[in-house]
């Protein structure tokens, strides 16, 4: 679905050509994970001299370490999907999607919402960005607004590509402020690094604000003209967009029929569903009231989403049906998480992660260290796409180098966080939930992901080095 003869401004042509190239050469996310497994295996043998038999053992040992996290991701996808497709929530989303007057404004709106919400929580940002992209595309198709759907989906993913690791749920900054973390225990840092030196530092907040503005301008400039825009209907069948299931909310059928048996009356009882739903929501509110933002984690978000959704649908059967509609989009997560966990096992146990980090960090000076830490994280993230797990592996090297060069640990952590998010625009691992919701293939969207990754390089390099800490 690429444009063979791209037209428009230079940046529009660049984005169209990159999209065309990536569409032809990028493998599916599952094959991407398989190929990375081979690359890491070969690298560990050649660079670290690790025995192939030992590597197979490391691969197997690591294979299961992300099972809890995989289930968390499945829940945040399904609960977020069910919540977003309730008629009340859909009304708010439809109002937002009615605001843009052209395709450029639509892309920018989705991008700003994705990046802003991801700063609050990456899981929320990922789901909100995905739902906004799909709904913007669907509404545009209904109103004949010409929007380029691949770029729209990329805009919905920009929270994971830029702001999430600078925000309230950023893995590395939160770990540095967690008592008993590995870096304190090893004596690499003298004490906890508070979020005032990472997430809420003026250095970081300046990067966040200017980054959102810069990215919004680039998204606006990348958006093709009307004649070159490819609508959602070229990627998602109209029957999925405008049928009962596509319209979301309570679908007609058994859940709307008058119950005739005792069991069916219980299934559709608003009292049965409502009491437990309110209990879950109230408990979440109590947790935040007593513990503050320190309580924010993926488990609590999933808990809130689960019962907030039930509170909206009220009837257990209606909520169950919406879950079943959403669950099919989680297959990629279930299939691919074990492979990436195996890659993490090989990288960590063989020492390949540490070697890569040490090599890159050795090239830095005090002035260039933030940029080198950004590049280091970006390279490692392609192979180990797990912010917290990656930081526990290469953070030791990064922080030791920062100490030797006189760079504050908070600044080093932020610079790492930038790189970890940046190459998510190349690595399709974290896009799996978004791909499931939007109905896109990775190769249809990631041409613009690679384009945005390249266009962010000047901004990030200059910002990391010249914004004062």
UniProtKB/TrEMBL annotation:
<feature type="transmembrane region" description="Helical">
    <location>
        <begin position="200"/>
        <end position="222"/>
    </location>
</feature>
<dbReference type="InterPro" id="IPR006160">
    <property type="entry name" value="SCFA_transpt_AtoE"/>
</dbReference>
<feature type="transmembrane region" description="Helical">
    <location>
        <begin position="445"/>
        <end position="467"/>
    </location>
</feature>
<feature type="transmembrane region" description="Helical">
    <location>
        <begin position="145"/>
        <end position="166"/>
    </location>
</feature>
<keyword id="KW-0472">Membrane</keyword>
<feature type="transmembrane region" description="Helical">
    <location>
        <begin position="367"/>
        <end position="384"/>
    </location>
</feature>
<keyword id="KW-1133">Transmembrane helix</keyword>
<feature type="transmembrane region" description="Helical">
    <location>
        <begin position="106"/>
        <end position="133"/>
    </location>
</feature>
<keyword id="KW-0812">Transmembrane</keyword>
<protein>
    <submittedName>
        <fullName>TIGR00366 family protein</fullName>
    </submittedName>
</protein>
<feature type="transmembrane region" description="Helical">
    <location>
        <begin position="326"/>
        <end position="347"/>
    </location>
</feature>
<feature type="transmembrane region" description="Helical">
    <location>
        <begin position="295"/>
        <end position="314"/>
    </location>
</feature>
<dbReference type="Pfam" id="PF02667">
    <property type="entry name" value="SCFA_trans"/>
</dbReference>
<feature type="transmembrane region" description="Helical">
    <location>
        <begin position="271"/>
        <end position="289"/>
    </location>
</feature>
<feature type="transmembrane region" description="Helical">
    <location>
        <begin position="30"/>
        <end position="56"/>
    </location>
</feature>
<feature type="transmembrane region" description="Helical">
    <location>
        <begin position="63"/>
        <end position="86"/>
    </location>
</feature>
């Amino acid at each position: 679905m690429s444009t063979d003869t791209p037209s428009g401004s230079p940046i529009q042509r660049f984005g169209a050509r990159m999209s065309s190239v990536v569409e032809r050469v990028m493998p599916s996310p599952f094959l991407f994970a398989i190929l990375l497994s081979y690359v890491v295996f070969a690298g560990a043998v050649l660079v670290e001299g690790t025995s192939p038999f030992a590597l197979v053992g490391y691969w197997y040992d690591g294979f299961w370490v992300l099972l809890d996290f995989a289930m968390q991701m499945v829940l945040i996808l399904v609960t977020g999907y069910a919540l977003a497709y309730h008629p009340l929530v859909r009304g708010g989303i439809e109002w937002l999607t009615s605001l843009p007057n052209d395709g450029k404004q639509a892309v920018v709106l989705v991008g700003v919402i994705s990046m802003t919400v991801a700063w609050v929580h990456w899981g929320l940002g990922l789901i909100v960005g995905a739902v906004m992209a799909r709904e913007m595309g669907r509404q545009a198709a209904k109103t004949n607004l010409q929007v380029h759907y691949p770029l729209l989906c990329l805009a919905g993913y920009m929270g994971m590509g830029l702001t999430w690791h600078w925000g309230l749920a950023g893995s590395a900054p939160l770990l540095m402020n967690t008592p008993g973390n590995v870096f304190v225990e090893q004596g690499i840092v003298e004490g906890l690094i508070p979020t005032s030196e990472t997430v809420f530092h003026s250095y970081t907040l300046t990067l966040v604000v200017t980054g959102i503005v810069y990215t919004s301008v680039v998204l606006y400039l990348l958006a093709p003209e009307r004649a070159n825009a490819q609508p959602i209907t070229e990627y998602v069948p109209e029957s999925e967009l405008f049928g009962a299931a596509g319209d979301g909310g309570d679908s007609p059928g058994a859940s709307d029929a008058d119950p005739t048996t005792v069991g069916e009356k219980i299934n559709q009882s608003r009292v049965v569903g409502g009491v437990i739903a309110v209990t879950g929501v109230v408990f979440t509110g109590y947790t935040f009231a007593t513990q503050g933002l320190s309580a924010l984690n993926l488990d609590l978000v999933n808990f809130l989403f689960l019962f907030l959704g039930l509170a909206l649908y009220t009837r257990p059967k209606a909520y169950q049906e919406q879950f079943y509609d959403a669950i099919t989009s989680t297959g990629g997560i279930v299939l691919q998480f074990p492979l990436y966990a195996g890659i993490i096992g090989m990288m960590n146990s063989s020492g390949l992660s540490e070697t890569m980090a040490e090599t890159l960090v050795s090239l830095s000076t005090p002035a260039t260290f933030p940029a080198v830490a950004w590049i280091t994280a970006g390279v490692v993230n392609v192979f180990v796409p797990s912010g917290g797990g990656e930081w526990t592996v290469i953070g030791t090297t990064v922080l030791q180098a920062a100490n030797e060069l006189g760079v504050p640990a908070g600044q080093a952590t932020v610079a790492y966080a930038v790189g970890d998010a940046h190459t998510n625009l190349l690595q399709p691992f974290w896009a799996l939930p978004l791909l499931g919701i939007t109905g896109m293939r990775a190769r249809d969207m990631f041409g613009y992901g690679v384009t945005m990754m390249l266009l962010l390089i000047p901004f990030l390099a200059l910002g990391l080095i010249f914004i004062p800490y």
